[in-house]
Amino acid sequence: KLLMPSGVPVFLLPLLVLIEVLSYLTLPIILSVRLFANMMAGHTMLKVFGGFDVMLGIVGGWAPLAFIVVFTGLELLIAFLQAYVFAILTCIYLNDAIHLHH
C-alpha cells in the first residue's frame, strides 16, 4: 500500500513502484550529502577568510578576523539548525515507516 497508492492505472504500477523504491533507498544518501555540503561550505568560508587574514597581516587583518569570529557564531547556529532539521526529518520518516496505513 505504501508503494502502490489506490487509483493508479495498472500499467503504471511497475514504474511507480520502481520510482518509490529508489526514492526510499536514496533518501538517506541525499540527506547525508546535504548535511555534508552545508558543513563543508561553512568550513570553506572560514578557510578563505583565514587566508585573507594572513595575507593582510597586522595592518588590515583585523577585518577578516572580525568576520571569522562572526561567521564562527553563524556556523554554530547553522549547525544547531541542521541538527534540528535532521532530527525532525528522521522522526517523520520513522513515523511513516512504522505507520504504513495512510
Compose a concise summary of this entry:
The protein has 102 residues and is mainly α.
Number of helices: 2
- Which spans have pLDDT < 50 for at least 5 consecutive residues? none
Task: Say how many strands there are.
Answer: 0
**Helix-strand pattern, N to C?**
HH
* Share of helix, binned: over 70%
Strand content: under 5%
* Assembly state of the chains shown: single chain
Largest sheet: none
- What is the average of the pLDDT values? 83
Instruction: Indicate the structural class.
Output: mainly alpha
Radius of gyration, in angstroms, nearest whole number: 22 Å
Q: Report, as a whole number of angstroms, the end-to-end distance.
A: 8 Å
Q: How would you describe the shape?
A: elongated
Labels describing this entry:
102 residues; mainly alpha; 2 helices; elongated
Would you write up a description of this structure?
With 102 residues, the protein is mainly alpha-helical. The relative contact order is 0.09. The protein has helices at residues 13-60, 62-98. The protein is 83% helix and 0% strand. The chain contains 2 helices and no strands.
Q: Secondary-structure blueprint of this entry?
A:
Elements: H1 13-60, H2 62-98
Helix pairs in contact: 1-2
